[in-house]
Write a structure and sequence with these properties.
The chain is built from 6 helices and 10 strands; from the N terminus they run βαβββββααβββααβα. By secondary structure, the chain is of the alpha/beta class. It has 2 domains: about 100 residues, SCP2 sterol-binding domain (Nonspecific Lipid-transfer Protein, Chain A); about 90 residues, SCP2 sterol-binding domain (Nonspecific Lipid-transfer Protein, Chain A).
């Protein structure tokens, strides 16, 4: 499997992209599209100055902050909306590299309940994690609970697609709530703790 290396003292965006890449690589067999690619890709935020450079080649994916001058493919994405379609420059000249990068940044996501179960096993191992936690899938009319019985400390409501992205670490739960795409019921302290755990999950550090 390709090794993912981050710059020293990596900034949050580098850590998030690194965690996303590792999740993708874990689920690909035979290295997937990235096994046939090499080159330099930049991922830029559409909404702020954040950007990372990914250098792909010789079995290594190196991720560092900023925009490299030798970038061959540039991807502009709305980092606050996982459903928004990115803009890609350089795909016509470097189709294999562009395809590999786009797939790398779009990790395969399982069914929302499976993703939630994986996240909850890690989160509930932390003593301060609120419990019980209930998740309500609004378009399926289905709910699931983790961390015991009784009145939930936290309830998360959303569609199957949005819940799967949030529970897999592909989107930021807090940003999804602020944007009105997810709805959360709970006390301020519990919400704060759950937010921290979901951010750790995004960074691949839970």
């Amino acid at each position: 499997m390709m090794n993912v290396e981050l710059e020293p003292d990596a900034v949050p965006m580098v850590r998030v992209v690194g965690a996303m890449a590792r999740r993708t690589l874990e689920r690909w067999s035979g290295g997937g599209p990235i096994g046939r690619a090499s080159g330099v890709v930049v991922l830029r935020s559409m909404n702020d100055p954040q950007a990372v450079t990914m250098r792909i080649g010789d079995g290594v994916l190196r991720i560092e902050r900023g925009v490299a001058g030798d970038a061959e493919v540039i991807i502009d994405a709305d980092l606050g909306d996982s459903s928004a379609k990115p803009r890609v420059e350089g795909a016509a000249r470097h189709p294999v590299l562009a395809l590999a990068a786009s797939k790398l940044l779009d990790p395969p996501v399982a069914y929302w309940c499976d993703e939630a179960d994986s996240f909850m096993r890690k989160a509930l191992a932390h003593r301060d994690c609120p419990r019980p936690i209930s998740i309500v899938c609004t378009d399926e009319g289905r709910s699931a609970r983790w961390g015991g019985d009784g009145e939930p400390a936290i309830e998360i409501h959303g569609t199957a697609e949005l819940l799967a992205a949030a529970m897999s670490g592909s989107s930021n739960v807090a940003e999804e709530v602020l944007a009105g795409r997810l709805y959360v019921v709970g006390g301020l302290r519990d919400l704060s703790m759950l937010t921290r755990l979901t951010i750790d999950h995004m960074f691949g550090e839970l």
